Amino acid sequence: MPVENKDYKSISKTRYFFDWKEERKEEVFKVVLKGQNDILGLVSIERIPTEWRVHIRLLTVSKEHVGNGKVFENIAGNLIAYAAKIAVADFGALACVSLRPKSSIAQHYIKKYNMNVTGTTLSIEVPEIVDLINQYDHD
Amino acid sequence: MTKKQNLINDESEYGVDSRYKTSKEREHDAVNLMQARLERMKNLTKEQILRAKLLQLTLKMESYLKDPVYDHQNHFADFLQTYIDAIYSKRSEFAKDINVTPVFLSQVINSHREPKEEFILKLMIHSEKVFKHVGSFQKKTWLQIYFHEKLCDTMASQDTWKPEIDKQVTFTASIVK
């Protein structure tokens, strides 16, 4: 779901790790439980039609869903799958989602989401992007 | 799992900041990534491309159902055309597969004729079989698109039909004051 202006009041750096207000002018989406308002995770993206690509600018999972005490699994996976849906809807078989995690955690994304590596950039394309959507996309 | 692995998992879960700091960085990324992708695209099979095209169609149909569009475009016909062109090299082959004439199919695609209910039912069965190996697709989506479009068109053209219809609706009893 798209983040609305009123949401920014409850999106703090303490709970969501980054200053999300900096992303106000970008396309920002949130994941929430059905019928609830509490934001479990956020992603901001940039559509790059000339490259048939959606670039993930910023992605986060709320503090209580990180680490051993986390309540829900796969929030990051759902957010990446959401960006993937936008890419496939816009660019079809040419679709690509990219992101650039720190090198220390890149392996985690490569393994978990079956991503390709180009320099410091990770990307997911057809056919893996279709599998990712089918695996993680639960409305 | 070791402490180090736990730490990496936690760090990766909390998020990623992938914002480009400079335009040079962005351009460099664009060129290298495109090169690598074009190489990988050469290895795509027809089936993988078809799966992606059909998923794209599904997403567009779902999006249309979620957000009503009031325009003069014929969405049912457009989706149908995309569906057929993704699977067949000749539309007449699809017509043969669902036992309609190529002329009838062409008229539906070009919005010169309304699809009969039987046509939509055949399309639903066809899609069910095609999507079986592709991913989730609810066959009722075709019917929903058809009626959703009717609804949108009717509501959008009230100025045209309402004045005349209004005259024909009267109340003999004083139900409405």
Low-pLDDT windows of residues of chain A: none
CATH class of chain A: Alpha Beta
Order of helices and strands of chain A: HEEEHEHEEH
The name of the CATH superfamily of chain A reads Gcn5-related N-acetyltransferase (GNAT)
Helix content of chain B: 55-70%
What's the CATH topology label of chain A?
Answer: Aminopeptidase
Class derived from helix and strand content of chain B: mainly alpha
Strand order of the largest sheet of chain A: 1-2-3-4-6-5
Fold and architecture overview:
The complex is a heterodimer of chains A (139) and B (177). With 139 residues, chain A is α+β, with helices and mostly antiparallel strands. Chain A has helices at 13-16, 75-91, 103-113, 128-136; strands spanning 27-32, 39-48, 53-61, 96-99, 116-118, 121-125. A six-stranded mixed beta sheet of chain A has the order 1-2-3-4-6-5. In chain A, helix 2 (75-91) crosses helix 4 (128-136). The termini of chain A are close together. The relative contact order of chain A is 0.14. Chain B is mainly α and 177 residues long. Chain B has a domain at 46-157. Chain B is 69% helix and 2% strand. Chain B is built from nine helices and one strand. Chain B has helices spanning 3-14, 23-41, 46-66, 75-87, 91-97, 102-109, 117-131, 141-156, 158-168, and one strand spanning 15-17. In chain B, helix 3 (46-66) runs antiparallel to helix 4, helix 3 (46-66) packs across helix 8 (141-156) and helix 5 packs across helix 6. The longest helix of chain B is centred in the N-terminal third of the chain and has 21 residues, at 46-66. Classes of the chains: A alpha+beta (139), B mainly alpha (177). The A-B interface holds A 17-18, 48, 51, 53, 55-61, 63, 65-68, 70, 75-76, 85, 88-89, 91-96, 98-102, 104-105, 107-109, 116, 118-119, 121, 123, 125-127, 129-130, 133-134 and B 6, 8-19, 29-30, 32-34, 36-37, 40-41, 44, 48-49, 51-53, 55-56, 59-60, 63, 135-136. Strand 3 of chain A pairs antiparallel with strand 1 of chain B.
